Fold each of these.
Amino acid sequence: MEVGHQPVMPDEVLGTLAPQPGSLQIDATVGGGGHTERILEAASPDGRVLGLDADGAAVERVGRRLSRFGDRLVLRQANFSELAEVAPAAGFGAVDGMLFDLGLSSFQLADTDRGFGFRAGGPLDMRFDTSRGVPAAELLATLNADELAALFRRYGEEPASWRIAKAIVAARSTTAVGTAEELAALVERVVPANPRLRRRTHPATRVFQALRIAVNGELDALVAGLAAAVDLLRPGGRLVVLSYHSLEDRIVKQFLNAERRGCICPPEAPVCVCGHSPRLRLVTRPSLTPSEAEIDANPRARSARLRAAERLAA
Ligand SMILES: C[S@@+](CC[C@H](N)C(=O)[O-])C[C@H]1O[C@@H](n2cnc3c(N)ncnc32)[C@H](O)[C@@H]1O
């Protein structure tokens, strides 16, 4: 049986985007197509969606699964950091709604050849787009202990980053740490599970998050994607972002606040010199989280946080 991906906070996403017939929407992270499918249904009979994903396998799968929407769904394999070029080229230069559902999908997690899950026995890759960049195993094999520790601290906020980095460097002098399974077991040996959190969080969660963020340049892509999104939204158009950990949520929150305030001068500046005017109004203040019922039905939703804003007239 094929694994599915349950879209997170679908009612809140749809309620906020409120897609109308005839509207144009962008799903910047199409994944399994769960949100896209609902947007297309809500925007019937003629609303259109541009669906992007860095992962070619996701784009192919969604193309097959949602073929019934015909040319109302346009799909592109692209990183959302390239939105500013990709969207206008696909005929989506000014849109009514834009969704970012960050991170990885259940399809990617379940694919043991890609190294996203702790029990994946295949190579530790972790790239969303397998045609570009450097797999996670290569970082583990080539970075020195200082660099590894800095990576785990910066992108995983991992308190035991130095101990883990040293253990990786020691282990690789005899055998490579080449699979997700090997890395998870190594971290578990160095940082045993906290018994209070045992059932909820694997001890390697932060290390895996850090590697995935580094391999995919996720935080830089988010900054570029959000900036492009605001430029592409029509006045009244809405931006919805679902994030899953504090590093990405912090970027979203700071971005929305800066665009809401208008002035982006540093706080110590005595007078405004940036000449920037507000371009967004916050729709969720401060943010929404999933209901207990949704978390029970879909544990992946547990850490989700939804922030949304509306584009003001220029
Ligand atoms: C959480 S899933 C999206 C699930 C989707 N909303 C659904 O309902 O099925 C996130 C997807 O975003 C993709 N992704 C992550 N970062 C990306 C980026 N910078 N550019 C394009 N796609 C990205 C991943 O490959 C993954 O398929």
Amino acid sequence: MNCNRCGGLMAYEKFYSPVEDFFGWRCISCGEIVDQVILENRTRQRG
Ligand SMILES: [Zn+2]
């Protein structure tokens, strides 16, 4: 998977938010974070 902002390599990591822990993709170049919820929202925007 590549970053949609800069095209860099993304790493699958665990994140710790105040609400709950979650897994997502973080760009090692620019720091862009994409998690499962964001991906689902993006794919549903056309509907
Ligand atoms: Zn990036």
